Amino acid sequence: MTATYALWSTLVRAVASRARLLGFAAVAVLVVVVAARSGNDLLLARDAVQFVDLVGVSFAAPVAALVFGVGVLGDLVDDGTLVYLWLRPVARWRLALSAAVASWTLAIPMAMIPVLAGCAVLGAADRLTAAAVLATFGAVSAYSSLFVWLGLVSRRALVWGIGYLLIVEQFAARGGSGLGALSVRSHALSILAGRTGVDLPTAWFSPLASGIVLAVVTLAGVVATTVTLRKRDLA
Amino acid sequence: MNGALRAVPDAPMVALDGVTKRYRGIVAVSEVTCRFEAGVTAVLGPNGAGKSTVLRLACGLTRPSDGVVRIHGHDPREHPEVSRFVGVVPQHHRLLPRTTALRFVELAGVLAGVDDPLIAARASLEAVELDPSDRRVTEQYSNGMRQRVKIAQALVTGPSILVIDEPLNGLDPRQRERMIDTFVELGRQGRCVVISSHVLDEVERFGSRVVVMNQGRLVAEGGVAAIRELMDDRPHHIRVGTDEPTHLAAAMLEGGWVTEARIVHGGVEVACSDVAGFARSLAPLAVKLGAELTEVRPLDDDLESVFRYLTQDGRPAGHGERT
Questions:
Q1: Which of B63, B111, B146 to mutate to test the interface with A (most CBs of A within 10 A)?
Q2: Taking the CB of residue B9, how many other CB atoms lie within 10 A of it?
Q3: b/e string for A32-54 if b means 16 or more Cβ within 10 A?
Q4: Which of A92, A207, B199, B212 has most Cβ atoms within 10 angstroms of its Cβ?
Q5: Does B106 sit within 8 Å of A87, measured CB to CB?
Q6: Can you tell me the distance from the alpha carbon of A84 to that of B78, in angstroms, rounded to the nearest whole number?
Q7: ipTM rounded to 2 decimals
Q8: Which site among A4, A20, A21, A87 would you substitute to test the B interface, given the most B Cβ atoms closer than 10 Å to its Cβ?
């Protein structure tokens, strides 16, 4: 067992509480039910894409990233058990990266399952399904990295995260290409729109540019977590 | 990263030099200078004295606001690799969730680069009398069992420095005996064992050097006996058993060997500043008075009394012998 694998598996186990997993299972079931009931009404491709936007990019992705992201290190900070990982001769970047990957490990499937289930129920085209997977993956990756860092720096990370999603992300995404550049959601929707050819109101950028931005945000989150792990005191 | 860092020759195992720690302007520890070397050292003090902060500083968990902390000559905040020298047992009983004891201890070995972490983890758990094959997650353990798991994870890496906050919390009497023996033996092996405790009779049984903290300051350090010697400006209380308590008390007061005397059943309790002088004068005085001495017993030479004296008014009493 390598140190990185040990860290990753420990963090996954730590954050995968029964309540969280059951919560997301309930969300998946709810989405499938809504999709099944809406299926006959979504005759246009645009409607199906908007359904993916609503369910995946704007809801499941940020919520899954928030729940697992802030918990992966934040829970350990709160209960004082981070010391068992921190006070080891392990590079801080390795711990930060392991935390981000642990968050992705849970958040990506938790966000993908309702999206894919919804696409299946709606009978969405392969092109839409592939675009939904890409957009959701990009959004979860970026959000997770940011929320892992947020969980490390704030004891009220969940509240701050919800505030960020409801206020900053919504406001920035609707703020045109200037403010929209600051919105993870806007970039994820740009990928979805670009790959499906459906024009979405907050998709301001090319899929390639948005993909690069989401990758940079993801990396920035890991770097910020590394720096914080180096500098912070542990109780 | 593992194994790249070596201890600086002749450097103290743990050194705090002029260390101050402030939390949002509140001083938790002020200008503490001390060394922790091989053997058991107990950090004592009342709640809020700064004991836990000193322990956290000593292992690099927290960064000093001022001053310098070194572990084997290295700054633990600049060199996380130095933590391979350190095993920490936190005060709280929480462990990583949804994990068996074996996996938890093995994880510590893996992260520290122990050669065969699984074998080391089994041995470490057996050393604290836990079953390595127990498949229960540690949430199902009692506090005493969790305490032993914490100790096992600290020992599994074979650290030269052990930092243990309230080490005997939650253990039953037999386990306490075993743990005390374990820590004393680790100290004898040349490891630096730093413990904090408010249970003073436990500390006496460690036979340890003592660092006394009060209101964020180091107020005394040394052996228990050495610290007691610092009390020269305070009266020592001694019970003298005799058949002539009234005459003996009067003579001792008149001779200036004691500052207070109180007649009690079967003798007299006295307070004196110069214990050696009192001891030299007592027997001749008893002979002179024709008094029979049945008992001479210090009433306040236990650590509890020393600790109370040192911390009751918060002023530094001075440093004992530097060991």
A1: B111
A2: 7
A3: bebbeeebeebeeeeebbbbbbe
A4: B212
A5: no
A6: 19
A7: 0.85
A8: A87
- Quick check: A108 and A116 in contact, CB under 8 A? no
Dist CA A185 CA B229 (whole Å): 70
Enumerate the residues of chain B whose CB falls inside 8 A of the CB of residue A3.
110-111, 113
The string of pLDDT tens digits covering residues B188-201 is: 999 999 998 876 66
Quote the longest CA-to-CA distance of chain A.
58
Q: Does residue A220 contact residue A233 with C-beta atoms inside 8 Å? A: no
pLDDT tens digits, residue range B150-207? Answer: 999 999 999 999 999 888 877 788 888 888 888 898 899 999 999 988 766 677 778 7
Whole-angstrom distance, CA of residue B98 vs CA of residue B206:
34
Measure the CA–CA gap between A89 and B7, rounded to whole angstroms.
Answer: 14
- Which pair of structure tokens corresponds to residue B34? 């001390």
Q: How far is CA A10 from CA A6, B108, B110, B189, in A?
A: 6, 11, 12, 33
CB A50 within 8 A of CB A135: no
